[in-house]
């Protein structure tokens, strides 16, 4: 089973960025631990701050893989282009957020992409990614 994790803008700074909101663990450490915990799953990771590169990655894996776990960062709230990319591909996409976006500023309450996703997980810190992985890998 091939699962792609995609992180959008500013998520390369996890661990350093607003640790009160996003925690102090970097994503690389979290990702290595996740891979070790689920050796039977082929987990892939991609991060970009560039909207078009996120779209290219969705296209690249969106017809062959078994699922995409997408944290589109702030593009979640703005990007019709990412929403269209999710609608265009075949594989299920789960929208994830580290923080509980609904407990934050009102501009974070709306997602442009959620309607095209299989489901949304938010507010569990980095564990949000593992919960999405469990949802995708359940038979
Ligand atoms: C985020 C929430 C977004 O509103 C924000 O722009 C991010 C991170 C999260 O994981 O909590 O960059 O997607």
TrEMBL record:
Group of enzyme by EC: lyase
Residues of the site described as Transition state stabilizer: 17
GO MF, one annotated term: 3-dehydroquinate dehydratase activity
Biological or metabolic pathway of the protein: Metabolic intermediate biosynthesis; chorismate biosynthesis; chorismate from D-erythrose 4-phosphate and phosphoenolpyruvate: step 3/7
Record-annotated active site: 22, 97
Catalyses which reaction(s): 3-dehydroquinate = 3-dehydroshikimate + H2O
Species classification: Bacteria, Pseudomonadati, Bacteroidota, Sphingobacteriia, Sphingobacteriales
Keyword annotations of the record: Amino-acid biosynthesis, Aromatic amino acid biosynthesis, Lyase
InterPro entries recorded: DHquinase_II (IPR001874), DHquinase_II_CS (IPR018509), DHquinase_II_sf (IPR036441)
Protein's gene: aroQ
Main function: Catalyzes a trans-dehydration via an enolate intermediate.
EC number: 4.2.1.10
Subunit: Homododecamer.
UniProt family annotation: Belongs to the type-II 3-dehydroquinase family.
One biological process term in Gene Ontology: quinate catabolic process
Coiled coil (residue ranges): none
The protein's name: 3-dehydroquinate dehydratase
Family matches, as Pfam families: DHquinase_II
Annotated substrate binding sites: 71, 77, 84, 98-99, 108
């Amino acid at each position: 089973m091939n699962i792609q994790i995609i992180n959008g803008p500013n998520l390369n700074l996890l661990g350093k960025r607003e640790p009160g909101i996003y925690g102090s663990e970097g994503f690389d450490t979290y990702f290595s631990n996740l891979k070790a915990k689920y050796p039977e799953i082929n987990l892939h990771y991609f991060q970009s701050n560039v909207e078009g590169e996120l779209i290219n990655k969705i296209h690249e894996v969106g017809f062959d893989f078994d699922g995409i776990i997408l944290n589109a960062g702030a593009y979640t709230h703005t990007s019709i282009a990412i929403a269209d990319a999710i609608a265009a591909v075949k594989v299920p996409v789960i929208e994830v957020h580290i923080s509980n976006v609904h407990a934050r500023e009102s501009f974070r309450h709306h997602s442009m992409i959620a309607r095209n996703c299989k489901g949304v997980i938010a507010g569990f810190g980095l564990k949000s990614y593992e919960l999405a992985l469990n949802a995708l890998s359940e038979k």
